[in-house]
Design goal:
Elements: H1 2-21, E1 30-39, E2 53-64, H2 68-83, H3 95-111, E3 120-131, E4 136-146, E5 152-160, H4 179-194, E6 216-218, E7 222-226, E8 241-245, H5 246-249
Parallel strand pairs: 2-3
Antiparallel strand pairs: 1-2, 3-4, 4-5, 6-7, 7-8
């Protein structure tokens, strides 16, 4: 009786631990975050750094998916995002090599007359944004800063099928003959989110048509779209993002859309 009680307690504890580690029973991908920071010794100079360049990387290493093929495909996509070269040259083979290339480029820049008081900072971070039984989505954020110049920043979403690692495109979700109707709905959301014009005023120039951005995130309640800084009005305070809820586009989805 005592042994049975102990085993029962252990089983309950194990169940509670699993529920804590995976609060969403629909999660089908496991991962661990990897971080890497590399910088030159000059970054530690106080109060003003001299000859300082730093690289900060963070990304999820996929541990398991419903299939080996899915794990390999998603990991390859993440590696491609992480290691895309900023400057022309040999593609890096690892995160360490990517960071080493940035630091070496900075040192070469100094030798060619670069100002040692101007620091460089490169950040590239990939976070898990959403996941379910049907979708695994990540958010790539990149920032490249050179001294006092305005940093170049970019945010891109990627959505995958956990079972095979397929990169999901909008045409995988919206029926081909419904894309125009979807663009109308999305356009209204963008105008509501980003326009500063009085209600009812058409700010579109003749011949200017709305294009649904290719940069989107699959979420629990809908599809979140994002424009980048070079795609929007310079007077905008920040890059517009807007959400199109599934309830609005239920009749436009493909039968095999499998969202969320």
């Amino acid at each position: 009786m005592l042994l049975r009680t102990i085993l029962l307690a252990a089983a309950i504890a194990a169940h509670l631990h699993a529920a804590t580690a995976h609060p969403d029973d629909e999660q089908s991908v496991t991962w661990k975050m990897i971080t890497l920071t590399k910088e030159l010794p000059g970054c530690e100079t106080k109060p003003s750094p001299m000859k300082c360049a730093s690289v900060q990387l963070a990304y999820p290493a996929i541990l398991s998916t419903p299939s080996t093929a899915g794990k390999a495909a998603i990991n390859q996509h993440i590696e491609d995002m992480l290691l895309t070269p900023i400057e022309k040259g040999k593609p890096p083979a690892s995160a360490e090599e990517f960071a080493a290339q940035i630091l070496a480029h900075y040192q070469a820049w100094l030798k060619h007359g670069g100002n040692a008081k101007i620091p460089w900072e490169v950040q590239r971070k990939i976070d898990v944004a959403y996941q379910s039984a049907n979708v695994f989505s990540v958010k790539l954020f990149e920032s490249v800063e050179q001294g006092t110049e305005h940093p170049a920043r970019n945010t891109v979403y990627f959505n995958f099928r956990p079972d095979d690692g397929h990169l999901i495109q909008l045409t995988d979700l919206i029926a081909a003959d419904k894309l125009n109707r979807f663009a109308e709905i999305a356009g209204k959301h963008l105008k509501k989110r980003a326009s500063k014009s009085p209600e009812g005023e058409d700010t579109k120039e003749p011949g200017q048509e709305f294009d649904v951005p290719k940069n989107f995130l699959i979420e629990r309640k809908g599809l979140r779209f994002r424009y980048e800084e070079d795609q929007v009005d310079p007077s905008s305070e920040k890059t517009p993002e807007f959400l199109v809820k599934y309830s609005e586009i239920k009749k436009l989805l493909r039968p095999d859309a499998r969202v969320p």
